[in-house]
Design brief:
Layout: H1 38-41, E1 47-48, E2 61-68, E3 80-82, E4 89-91, E5 94-98, E6 104-107, E7 114-118, E8 130-132, E9 138-141, E10 153-158, E11 163-168, E12 183-185, E13 198-199, E14 205-207, E15 210-213, E16 216-217, E17 230-234, E18 240-244, E19 277-279, E20 284-288, E21 310-315, E22 321-326, E23 342-348, E24 351-359, E25 365-369, E26 379-383, E27 398-402, E28 412-413, H2 423-434, E29 439-440, E30 450-452, E31 466-468, E32 473-479, E33 483-489, E34 500-503, E35 506-509, E36 516-522, E37 537-543, E38 548-554, E39 578-581, E40 585-588, E41 595-600, E42 606-611, E43 621-625, E44 628-635, E45 648-654
Parallel strand pairs: 1-39, 3-8
Antiparallel strand pairs: 2-45, 4-5, 5-6, 6-7, 9-10, 10-11, 11-12, 13-16, 14-15, 15-17, 17-18, 19-20, 20-21, 21-22, 23-24, 24-25, 26-27, 28-29, 30-33, 31-32, 32-37, 33-36, 34-35, 35-36, 37-38, 39-40, 40-41, 41-42, 43-44, 44-45
Length: about 650
C-alpha cells in the first residue's frame, strides 16, 4: 500500500507523470574511519567539519568506487514502494549500508569492497506488496562488556515485518543475548489488514542504554488504524522497557482533554515514521509525530488531538513526557512532522542556547529550548480559514506560526498564481483553479476539491535541513507543486480490491470507517504540466540567527523529462536531504535528473555535479579514510517518483 506522504506529482508535458511528493529520514556523518558517528547521526544537523574537499577544489572530485547491493527492483512495481533512502554509517571502521530489503552490508570505506553482510530474511521479499526502504541503522557500544567481547559494539535495524534486530558491528553475526538470538518481535496494537501495514523504516534512536523505535503506519487505510506508539527496549537484553502512544487511550492521559470524546480510542496513527533526535546528556529523545487517522477528515475526533502532529520530548529512561508542542491543531491536512529535529546551539539574547529546530511540511520553522520546550523564536496563534465544507468537521480556529522566521515556500494558492508554458496553458490552469476551493494555507479539504499549497508532501519532508554552526545557516530542500485534495462520499466512491485506485496521477484511498474517501492529485493543466510557477523544487539557505533567507535556488533540471533534452533548471520534485561541510559546500541528490550536486554555501551557485547511475533520493554522507575525504550517496531512486531505479552506492574523492 502506498503512503499519502508521497503523493504523485507529474510534470512537464506529462513527462513528470509518475513523480510523487515525498516521503521520510535524516543526517550525515563526518568522522575518521576509526570512529562511530552515531552521535552525529542522532543530532540531525547533517554537518561535517571536514575541509579537505572545499569550494576551491570541489571541481576536481572524481568517482572513487561504486558498489551494488544486488537489491534490484522488479519490473512490475504495482503495490510496491521501493526507495533506496539509506544514509550509510561509519561504524567500527566499516561503511555500513542498509539495502532496500534491510540487508546490512559492511564495506571497506576506501575501496567499496564488501567485508560482510547480514540478511534479516524479510518475509515480504519476493512478494508483490509492501514498503521496501531502510533509512539507516543505529550503533550502540556496551561499556560494561570486556574489550573484544562479542557484540560489545552492536548495530540495530528495524524490519519490514516490524522486528528489531541486533548484530555484532564487527562481523555482522546476531547478538545471541538480545531477544531471541538477536531478534525482538515488536508487538503491534492489533492485527494488520495486510503485510506491511506497520513497518519500522527509520533507524532506532539510542538514548544512553535504551533503544526507541518508531513505525510507519499505512495512511488512509482505516480510521481504526494500528497505534503509532513508540516502543523502548533495553539495548543489552532486548527487554521492553516502556511505550508511548501519541493518541491517548485513557481519560487519565494528560492529552485526553484535547480530544472532545475524552480519549483518542478508536483512532490510530500519530506515529513516528521519520527519524528521532537524541540529547544524551539530557536523557531526552525527540519525536516528530504524525496526524491521527485519517489524514483528511476528523469529524469524529474534534479537538486539537494532542500529542499528534507535534514535537514530543520523552525521558529516555522512563518514557515520561518532558515537554511537547503541537505544530498543527486538529490536523486534517496530512501535515505530519516529517523531518528529524535538528539539535543545535542557537544564539538567543546574547547567549548560545541548546536548541531544537523543527522543519515542517508547511515550510514553517520552529525553534525551541530543547530542555524546556520554551520557544526561542516567538510563536503566535493566527486565525485560519473556517470554511467547513464536509459534514461534522470542526476545524481549529487558529494555527501556530513562528514570528520573524521566513517560510520556505508559498503559503497558499489562488487563480492569480496560475502558470503555463503558453498563454493557453496558463488560461486552462486558471480555469481549473477557479473550479476548485483555494486560498491561504489551512484551507480545508472539501467535496469540491481544495488546492493545498504547500502540498500534503511538503514543502520540506523527511530529508530535512543541514546546519552550519559557524554561519548559523540552515539549508533545506522543498517541493513546490500544489496538490488537489477531494473528499468523496463513501457511497459515491469506487475502490478496487487493493483499496487504492490510480487514475493517471490521482490516488484514492479506502479510509475504511470514515464517511469520506480522499483523493489526492497534483494540480496540473490539461496538457499535463504543473499549474504553479517554477521552480517546482528548490534549495533554500536561511540565516537562523537573523531570520533571513540568504539564497533560494531551483533544485534539479527537467532535461531528462523532456522529449528534447533542454537543460532547464526548473526544479524537479524529489526526495532526500543535504550534507553541509566546513569546506563551504552543500551536497545534495534529491532530483529526478540523476545528479549529485555541490552548491556553494555562500551563494547557492552549483560548483560541481556528477551523473549518478540512478536518482540519489537519499542523504549524502562524508568521512575521512586513509587520509582522503570521501563523499558517498545511495543512488537507487524512488519508485513513487518515477525515477531511474538501481542499487548503487557511489563514492567520490579528489583526483590525486
Amino acid at each position: 500500500m502506498r503512503s499519502i506522504d508521497e503523493p504523485r506529482v507529474p510534470g512537464i508535458g506529462k513527462l513528470l507523470e509518475g513523480c510523487l511528493l515525498l516521503a521520510a529520514v535524516t543526517i550525515a556523518l563526518a568522522a575518521s574511519a576509526a570512529e562511530s558517528v552515531v552521535d552525529q547521526h542522532q543530532l540531525g544537523t547533517k554537518y561535517s567539519p571536514l575541509t579537505q574537499i572545499n569550494k576551491d577544489n570541489v571541481a576536481n572530485l572524481e568517482l572513487a568506487w561504486e558498489y551494488h547491493t544486488g537489491d534490484l527492483p522488479p519490473a512490475d512495481l504495482k503495490n510496491l514502494l521501493i526507495a533506496f533512502e539509506d544514509q550509510p554509517s561509519l561504524i567500527e571502521g566499516n561503511l555500513v549500508v542498509c539495502s532496500t530489503t534491510r540487508r546490512v552490508i559492511a564495506l571497506d570505506p576506501q575501496t567499496g569492497k564488501e567485508r560482510w553482510s547480514f540478511d534479516p530474511q524479510d518475509p515480504l521479499e519476493g512478494k508483490k506488496i509492501g514498503m521496501r526502504k531502510c533509512r539507516g541503522v543505529s550503533n550502540w557500544v556496551d561499556r560494561e562488556a570486556a574489550d573484544g567481547a562479542a557484540c560489545k559494539s552492536r548495530i540495530f535495524v528495524g524490519t519490514a515485518d516490524y522486528r528489531l534486530v541486533a548484530i555484532d558491528a564487527n562481523n555482522g553475526k546476531p547478538c545471541e543475548g538480545f531477544g531471541d538470538n538477536g531478534v525482538v518481535r515488536m508487538p503491534a496494537s492489533k492485527p494488520e489488514l495486510f503485510p506491511g501495514e506497520l513497518v519500522a523504516t527509520s533507524h532506532p534512536a539510542v538514548v544512553n542504554d535504551v533503544l526507541v523505535v518508531g513505525s510507519a503506519v499505512a495512511d488512509n487505510q482505516r480510521v481504526d488504524a494500528p497505534s503509532g506508539r513508540v516502543l523502548a527496549f533495553d539495548a543489552r537484553t532486548g527487554k521492553q522497557l516502556w511505550e508511548f502512544d501519541p493518541v491517548p487511550r485513557s481519560p487519565a492521559d494528560p492529552a485526553a482533554g484535547s480530544w472532545a470524546r475524552g480519549t483518542g480510542e478508536g483512532y490510530g496513527g500519530g506515529n513516528v515514521w521519520s527519524s528521532m533526535a537524541v540529547d544524551q546528556e539530557l536523557d531526552l529523545v525527540y519525536l516528530p509525530t504524525t496526524s491521527p487517522s485519517g489524514d483528511f477528515y476528523g469529524g469524529d475526533r474534534a479537538g486539537d488531538n494532542n500529542y499528534t502532529t507535534s514535537v514530543v520530548a520523552l525521558r529516555g529512561a522512563t518514557g515520561e513526557v518532558a515537554w511537547h508542542f503541537q505544530v498543527v491543531h486538529h490536523n486534517v491536512f496530512d501535515f505530519d512532522v516529517p523531518s528529524q529535529p535538528m539539535l543545535i546551539d542557537f544564539p538567543h539574547n546574547g547567549a548560545m542556547v541548546p536548541a531544537l529546530v523543527q522543519n515542517t511540511k508547511m515550510g514553517l520553522i520552529f525553534v525551541f529550548d530543547r530542555a524546556t520546550g520554551a520557544p526561542l523564536v516567538p510563536i503566535e496563534e493566527r486565525p485560519v480559514p473556517q470554511d467547513v465544507r464536509v459534514g461534522g468537521e470542526v476545524l481549529s480556529p487558529t494555527q501556530p506560526f513562528p514570528v520573524g522566521m521566513p517560510a520556505l515556500g508559498p503559503l497558499g494558492f489562488s487563480p492569480e498564481d496560475a502558470w503555463g508554458f503558453t498563454p493557453v496553458d496558463r488560461w486552462l490552469c486558471r480555469e481549473r483553479i477557479e473550479e476548485l476551493n483555494y486560498g491561504p494555507i489551512y484551507t480545508p479539504p472539501s467535496e469540491k476539491g481544495t488546492i493545498f499549497s504547500p502540498s500534503v508532501g511538503g514543502g520540506p519532508n523527511w530529508g530535512g535541513g543541514a546546519y552550519d554552526p559557524q554561519s548559523h545557516i540552515m539549508v533545506v530542500p522543498s517541493n513546490r507543486v500544489p496538490v488537489v485534495v477531494t473528499l468523496i462520499r463513501r457511497e459515491n466512491a469506487r475502490l478496487d480490491e487493493t483499496q487504492t485506485i490510480e487514475a493517471g496521477a490521482a490516488m484514492t484511498f479506502a479510509n475504511a470507517g470514515a464517511p469520506y474517501v480522499p483523493k489526492v492529485e497534483p494540480l496540473l493543466s490539461p496538457l499535463g504540466a504543473p499549474c504553479s510557477e517554477p521552480p517546482w523544487a528548490a534549495l533554500t539557505a536561511v540565516d537562523l540567527a537573523k531570520g533571513d533567507i540568504v539564497w533560494d535556488v531551483p533544485l534539479g533540471s527537467i532535461e531528462k523529462l523532456m522529449p528534447v533534452p533542454i537543460p532547464w533548471e526548473a526544479g524537479t520534485p524529489g526526495a532526500g536531504g543535504p550534507l553541509l561541510t566546513a569546506g563551504g559546500l552543500v551536497f545534495i541528490g534529491f532530483t529526478l535528473d540523476d545528479k549529485l550536486r555541490a552548491f556553494s554555501l555562500d551563494t547557492g551557485e552549483v560548483l560541481w555535479s556528477a551523473d549518478l547511475p540512478a536518482a540519489g533520493t537519499a542523504i549524502p554522507v562524508t568521512y575521512e579514510a586513509g587520509g582522503e575525504q570521501y563523499v558517498v550517496i545511495a543512488a537507487g531512486g524512488h519508485s513513487m517518483f518515477g525515477t531511474t531505479l538501481g542499487d548503487s552506492v557511489v563514492a567520490y574523492k579528489l583526483k590525486r
